[in-house]
Amino acid sequence: MNDHRARKRFGQNFLTDPNIIRKIIDAIRPLAGETMVEIGPGLAAMTAPLVERLGHLHVVEIDRDLIARLRERFTAEQLTIHEGDALRFDFNRLMDAGQSLRVVGNLPYNISTPLLFHLAEFADRVADMTFMLQKEVVMRMVAEPDTPDYGRLSVMLQYRFRMGRLFDVPPGAFNPAPKVTSSIVRMIPWPAEKLTAIDEGVLARVVTAAFGQRRKTLRNTLRDHLSLEDFAALDIDPGLRGERLSVADFVRIANHMVARPGECR
Ligand code: SAM
Asked: Which of 172, 180, 211, 264 has the most CB atoms in a 10 Å sphere around its CB?
């Protein structure tokens, strides 16, 4: 295929199965003229068909050897290469006036959670995101309350995005083959009026506390945030565990805390 040696530290597993690549590109449905960025283009398995359909694509890649190959293969009109760490990349730079951004990628699994949180910061100007991730992470992202996979990642991402798992991809579709199955997930930001948390920092703190010690009840995990009177006012049983609360419950708790008399944030 080529002589690039996959770098583990950059989470490199390259897609090689043409049927899977086609299926992913079809799921993304790139349309000519759209503004799209691919995170981690690697050896261009997805990049080439995306460029073909879009005309132009932005990519963010950290590996200099791969960047050199991309420069040889694509013209500057086809591909704008942003060299560096996607975790630090300011995606606002790519937002064309009046056009929202589409984000795609077969993400490096070793940084998937921080990358999802980083990307969530730009959600208000993003049209959609379609990613390949470890199946286990996708199951946590889309998990419903009262299931073992439901946790901080589920609540914080479901607060901001409508999400769906599209299909699974087996290890044999990559070179080198990862140890785990992967899944494709689509994330569509909710419109601003759906984001009802008065202070998202408070929401994040409450959710982190509630899932910090999964086996403990809310009375314990939220001790520093809510009194028994607060639980009563919210009509939430302090004997429950965090996994029983819906995203809307967490928003209610955070908003109650912000609105409490004498509260200083
Ligand atoms: N898109 C290619 C494919 O599907 O075959 C490669 C996917 S590979 C799983 C992940 C890619 O992300 C690699 O090209 C890797 O070098 C790149 N990468 C890893 N960490 C990165 C980071 N922090 N910022 C940007 N790119 C990164």
From this structure: 211
Substitution site in 63, 81, 103 for ligand 1 pocket (most atoms within 8 Å of beta carbon): 63
* Nearest CA residue ID for atom 20, ligand 1: 10
State how far the Cα of 52 lies from the Cα of 31, in Å rounded to an integer. Answer: 10
Residue pointed to by tokens 């086809």: 78
Tokens coding 158: 């479901």
**Residue for token digits 């010690």?**
213
Measuring from each residue's beta carbon to the nearest atom of ligand 1, which residues come in under 6 Å?
A: 10-15, 39-43, 45-46, 60-63, 66, 85-87, 106, 108, 111
CA 153 distance to own-chain centroid = 9
Residue 139 CA to residue 4 CA, distance in Å, equals: 32
**For the segment 172-212, what is each residue's pLDDT rounded down to a tens digit?**
999 999 999 999 999 999 999 999 999 999 999 999 999 99
